[in-house]
Design a protein that fits this description.
The chain is of the alpha/beta class and 230 residues long. It contains nine helices and eight strands. Strand 3, helix 4 and strand 4 form a beta-alpha-beta unit.
């Protein structure tokens, strides 16, 4: 517990310092704990420390944890690639989906969201650096997806998610994050009521925050080394 608390304090301090350096209020940036490939017991530890939002990218693994932790009031974010045959389970068991990058997936999530539940919070995933090996829509496709999302009753469009190219060159990191923010602001100017810009991980959260991120996704720096890979 002490080790987990120390990690949490360290990450929150980094977020706070990055916000101050960028002339922003620390409260403008939320923390998503990426719990993929960590057992349910690790989530319990962090929930006892006040963490409620957890990100998963493997559906069956996530559903198993949700069954184990059904008594806890947690907010689940799906952050992985979405196959058509998985949309119903995602629509039924998550509060957020951050990895929507196709019209078909968006329509299915809306159609399969139970009417008894609040609209599904959605971030559109943009492949901002147009890397062929990565998921995500182009900037032009994002504009189409956003227009469709606004017309779906069971979808609440919240913003954008991005995983920019891997580089240690700060200027290139800034450039990628800035392009995401520019697209985010363009959507808002077109009338979309967006409030979430999900970008930045353990290695680059400071740069992401300096370029407008409102949510950082942190895994290993919070939860430690994963118990298994895959």
């Amino acid at each position: 517990m002490n080790e987990s608390l120390n990690r949490l304090k360290s990450v929150r301090k980094r977020i706070e310092k990055a916000c101050i350096a960028a002339g922003r209020r620390p409260g403008e940036v939320s923390l998503l704990t990426v719990s993929k490939r960590h057992p349910a017991n690790d989530i319990i530890v962090f929930n006892k420390l006040g963490v409620v939002s957890f990100g998963e990218n493997q559906l069956q693994e996530a559903l198993g944890k949700q069954r184990e932790l059904v008594s806890l009031d947690l907010q689940w974010h799906f952050i992985g690639a979405i196959q058509s045959n998985k949309t119903r389970a995602i629509a039924e068991h998550f509060q957020w989906v951050q990895s929507v990058d196709r019209l078909k997936i968006l329509r299915r999530l809306s159609a399969q969201r139970p009417e008894s539940m609040d609209p599904l919070n959605v971030c559109l995933q943009v492949n901002i650096d147009q890397e062929p090996q990565k998921a995500g829509a182009s900037s032009e496709e994002i504009l189409q997806l956003a227009a469709l999302a606004e017309g779906l009753n069971n979808i609440k469009l919240r913003g954008l998610m991005a995983i920019p190219r891997m580089t240690t060159v700060a200027s290139q990191q800034h450039d990628s994050f800035k392009k995401v923010n520019d697209l985010f602001e363009k959507l808002k100017k077109e009338g979309h009521m967006l409030d979430t810009l999900s970008m930045g991980m353990s290695s680059d959260l400071e740069i992401a925050i300096s370029e407008g991120s409102t949510m950082v996704r942190i895994g290993t720096d919070l939860m430690g080394q994963r118990t298994h890979e895959g």
